[in-house]
Amino acid sequence: CCDCGLVKEEYSDEELGLCIIIIGTFIHREPCLAASLLPEILNIVTTVSLNITYPWQSESSIYLPGSAVSVAHQFLRCVLHQMAPNGIFLQMFQTNIKGTTSTRLFRSVSQALVDFNELNSIAPLQILIE
């Protein structure tokens, strides 16, 4: 950066998708180690999942196969389904998340779970109420 002197990092869509897959594998294999990092991981992945590449994607729920957005949605589905018995939804609702970050998180989770048969978008509320 010309202003602050920090190194700018730019990643392609495929590289972001591969990074999300690596993080998903880490969470799947070592959930105990990943538990403390999970809020930050979810925050970053929700940022990627809400990042639209093309203007037509803002009005549609269709994503390009293999794009970082579709990989991020699948990551959210898998991680939330894997962690649901461990109380991930209760933790999500109890965590003190400020302002737009919580809106982004819940919007991204609901978009990811809309067409997921194993865990629909109402399931987090059901689990929370139970």
From TrEMBL:
PANTHER family: PROTEIN UNC-79 HOMOLOG
Name listed for the protein in its UniProt record: Protein unc-79 homolog
InterPro entries listed in its UniProt record: UNC79
Originating organism: Ceratosolen solmsi marchali
